[in-house]
Amino acid sequence: MISKLTKIVATISDLRCEPEHIKDLYDAGVNVIRLNTAHQSHEDTIKVIENVRKISNKIALMIDTKGPEVRTANIENPIIVKTGDKVIISTLPINEPNSLQTNYDGFVKEVPQGSKVLIDDGELEMTVVSKLPDRLICEIKNDGQIKNKKSINTPGISLKLQSVTEKDRGFIELAAKYNVDFIAHSFVRHSKDVQDVQKILNAIGNPDVKIISKIENQEGIDNIEEIVKASYGIMVARGDMGVEIPAEDVPIAQLKITQTCIKYGIPVITATQMLHTMIENPRPTRAEVSDIANAILNGTDAIMLSGETAYGKYPIEAVKMMTNIAKKVEKHRKRTLYKDELFYDKSTTRNYIIKCAIDATKIMDVKAIIVDSLKGKTARIMATYRASVPLFITTNSERLARELTLSYGVYSNLVDNNFKRTTEFVVTSLKILKEQGIVTDKDTVIIISGNPNRDIDKGTEFMEINTVEDAIKGRNI
């Protein structure tokens, strides 16, 4: 049975990736398994991929690149600092007290005087008070310590970092080799960053791996429309975003990104610290529950777990909690969330039929929508309307079935045969749903397909509202 419409992405590592554990996550409601390459080797990643594939060919895999980043370097012992202290930042070794290096050669040149510099995900703040050719002089704003290999953020400053590192390239090539479904690329700032990843996939010979752009700073937020147009999907990565922009601006950015994705019909994932408390505790805070609920009410396709499932004490409980929150919120929200202008041009036959089908679900007791979607486009457009009933496609393409795991309310059934006509598709789809207990003969369904009198690959031209029983009988198969 389909218990929820919102999809769940769960992060795991090789340290806890036994097939039995993956099955427990899947049974609890996980749709996509994410691998964070910042903490894994190629061998670790391959191990997880192989174990996931042992459990189900419907579980999608997402490899998350580390992306370009600036970190502290060559610090042997922690530097203890207090408010008002001065610290030197350089890209070269400097044998002076309270001095540190960064791993990015252009840092001193590109960061202007007056800039804010944050260390270790914002734990330590400093301001650039003076700039020399080989160093920045910074004033510490709060007590703390500076350790080796900690993150350095410069909010509001666009650094000229390469979009794809050599480490990223290696994992992108691995993803292509093992037919991983999604690459979530970190710190995407422009559409060119997406194109750089796509060029690597094209050169390898597997251009069908889908790119999810992670939006993590102001530059990415400002360029969201061009990034959305170049991407398969978007991840609202609120961890680094909350360091790069003021925390109070994150909810507004999250809403803007979500609505832009809906406007252009691509999946959006809301991520980071959604059930952070459950890393250590069996129950979430009320604020965390509200965070998940509001992400769903705002229209996200998917919600994501990171440390909760990667190394937390209660991974299965966290997934079950997310599933239960989603089920409850989906039942009590309005049937449609968005104004018509957010959606596709309805002057085309396909898009007009989609709009009619969605309108029908608002006034009729419809159990499910059956979508004949050869390449997934119709299903993805329908998902943007956030219908109150699930959408089902039947396909012989494992890749397509897994791609659609990120789209709100869309579920796939895999078959061996390739349908020649829409009649075969409809009857097979309905019989499968009956066997699964999702529909009965007397349930009303909406069928979206090509013209029944034409070959199946001619596009969406037909809508039928009928009971399951009569829809099957009327096709005489």
TrEMBL record:
Q: Where is the Pyruvate kinase barrel domain?
A: 4-319
User: Which SUPFAM superfamilies does the UniProt record give?
Assistant: Phosphoenolpyruvate/pyruvate domain (SSF51621), PK beta-barrel domain-like (SSF50800), PK C-terminal domain-like (SSF52935)
Q: Which reaction does it catalyse?
A: pyruvate + ATP = phosphoenolpyruvate + ADP + H(+)
Q: Its Gene Ontology molecular function terms?
A: ATP binding; kinase activity; magnesium ion binding; potassium ion binding; pyruvate kinase activity
NCBIfam families, per the entry: PRK05826.1 (NF004491), PRK06354.1 (NF004978), pyruv_kin (TIGR01064)
Question: Source species, please?
Answer: Borreliella afzelii (Borrelia afzelii)
Q: Which UniProt keywords apply?
A: ATP-binding, Glycolysis, Kinase, Magnesium, Metal-binding, Nucleotide-binding, Pyruvate, Transferase
Q: Which domain of life is it from?
A: Bacteria
Required cofactor(s): Mg(2+); K(+)
Q: In which pathway does it act?
A: Carbohydrate degradation; glycolysis; pyruvate from D-glyceraldehyde 3-phosphate: step 5/5
Q: What EC class is this?
A: transferase
What EC number is given for this enzyme? 2.7.1.40
Mind telling me which InterPro entries this protein's record contains? Answer: Pyr_Knase, Pyrv/PenolPyrv_kinase-like_dom, Pyrv_kinase-like_dom_sf, Pyrv_Knase-like_insert_dom_sf, Pyrv_Knase_AS, Pyrv_Knase_brl, Pyrv_Knase_C, Pyrv_Knase_C_sf
Ranges where the Pyruvate kinase C-terminal domain occurs:
353-464
This chain belongs to the protein called Pyruvate kinase
**What family does the Swiss-Prot or TrEMBL record give for this protein?**
Belongs to the pyruvate kinase family.
